[in-house]
Every structure is written in structure tokens, then in C-alpha cells.
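User: My instructor asked us to take a sequence, write out its structure as C-alpha cells, and then describe one feature of it. I'm not sure where to start. Here is the sequence I was given:
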Amino acid sequence: MGRWRGAALSVPAEEMLSWLSVEKGRAPNTVSAYRRDLWAYESWLRSRPGSPAAELADERLVAEYVVHLRRSGFAPASVARHLVAVRQLHRFLVQEGDLELDPTAELRPPPVPQSLPKALREEEVGSLLASVTGSSPVEVRDRAVLETLYGTGMRISELTGLSLSDVFIEDQLVRVLGKGNKERMVPLGRFARQALQAWTGPGGRQAFVPARWARRTDSAAVFLNQRGGRLTRQGAWGIVRHYGERSGLSGRLSPHVLRHSCATHMLDHGADIRVVQELLGHASIATTQVYTKVSTERLKAAYLAAHPRARAR
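Assistant: Let's start with the prediction itself. The C-alpha cells for your sequence are:
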């Protein structure tokens, strides 16, 4: 399919991305994901006989692209994601009058099997958090990153987007800006609160404050890198990966796994699903319900392992 280099798209595709960003208010990460998938689609179209543009694609050609994605080894979820971008482009072309009929109107994405989140065991989370042993500013920050991710269940983009004015230590709350720019207030548990208090207090964040801010917005960031800039998603990912390797969780740990673990452990201990929905910032409770299945599976596993008459001997 070629290699993604952030290349420019066709004029209609660029106009659609601008529309998504300006008119629909889609987040930069969402627009970037659309760009990658549209680049793959338009690259494939250019490889076809006659190099047809998207405005000339018919239902047969789009169906061929789906087959191409499957043969290229894309999982059903990835195929479905690509088709979201392709469908949006063709709908936009119809809306703008560049296309009479939408060739994706009758196209159905492949069914996506619902996979269970792979939550860590509570003792594994304990080992991870205990692996941050020092008291240098870097380790104080890293402890706060890990405790906050697990303690609140927030997404990594939400964590790196936190500003100092979002953290209310005394009230044990943090304001989180989630998907669709929706705000929610999330409680801070004891360990997350203590870790954030240590990071924002003397001997923590102040050690990374530069003589002059490279960007004005960096001065408001809760989490900084050692150069004095706002900690990026990649930087936060690196912190999680580093301590995952240190605690023997290499290959199994990601920021999203900590989010899964937070939700699963709360349900394991009897939390109401509506509370977990609010905590995670899910728009639909159906998204949260997958965690109830995880907890049920864990309950069954524990029962089968422990009850003397649970399985044939």
C-alpha cells in the first residue's frame, strides 16, 4: 500500500479534512487518522488502471478496496476504520455536488469481534507502581503519571492535556477534557493525590521549569519533560513502557491497559456501572458494558479455581 509520509491528498480530500476540523470541530488526532486512511485509499486508487479519482469510484471499485485491505492482512477492526474515512469522503463529495451517488451507501463493514480488554491483576499493578523507587524529579513525575493513569482511568491524551488549573488537590478532584471537548470531574484517590501533590510541590515540577518557556501554553502544563516542554503522548507512553519493562510486564502494558485495569478493578469491587461510565467519560453505557463482561470472566475463573465442586476432578 506504500509508505505513509504525511503526503498531501487530493483537493476534495483536503477540503473534507478542513470541513471536519473547522465545521465539525474534530480533534487534531482524529483528523490526522482520517488523513492516513484517506492517503492509503487514494494511493490504492492511483495504482488502479486509469488511476481513477475518488469522484469516479463506483461501488465495485470500493468493494475491491475492501478485498485489498483484507488480503493485505488488516484485521476486521482496521478494515472498518479505513472504511469510515472512505465513506466520509464519498458522503462529502455527494454533499458538495461532486458525486451524484454515494458508492459506499450499501457497503457494510466487516463484523468486528468484540475483544476483551486485557486488564492487569491488582498485584501486577502494585508491582508496577512499586517499581518507581527513587525521589529525583524524574521519578516523582513518573510516579505521578502512573498513579494518575491507573487512579483515574483517564486516556493518555487527557493526561498530557492537563493544566495546573485543572487539578484541585484539596478537593480531591481533577477536571478532564475528554473526547469531543467534553469536560468531566474525576475524583483523585489517595495515592494519585499524594503523587500529584509531590510532583507539583517543591522538588518536583519546578526542577523542569525553564528560564524561558518555548511555548506559552507549556507554562500551564501539569506534566513537563526534562526540557521544560509539555509532556507529549509519546513521552508519557515511554514512561509507561519503561516501568512496564522494569516490573516484568513488557509487551503487556500500555496506557490503555491501565485504563482497562482501573475500570475492571472498580467493577470487581462492586462499583456501579454508571459510576464507571462517568469516570471514563464514555458517551454510551454500551461502551462501558464490555468491562462487566471482563469482571464476569474473572469471577468465573476465580470460582473454577477455588470451589471444590466447580469442575470434574
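For the description part of your assignment, you could build on this observation: Residues 122-305 form a domain with the hpI Integrase; Chain A fold (CATH 1.10.443.10). Try explaining in your own words what that tells you about the chain.
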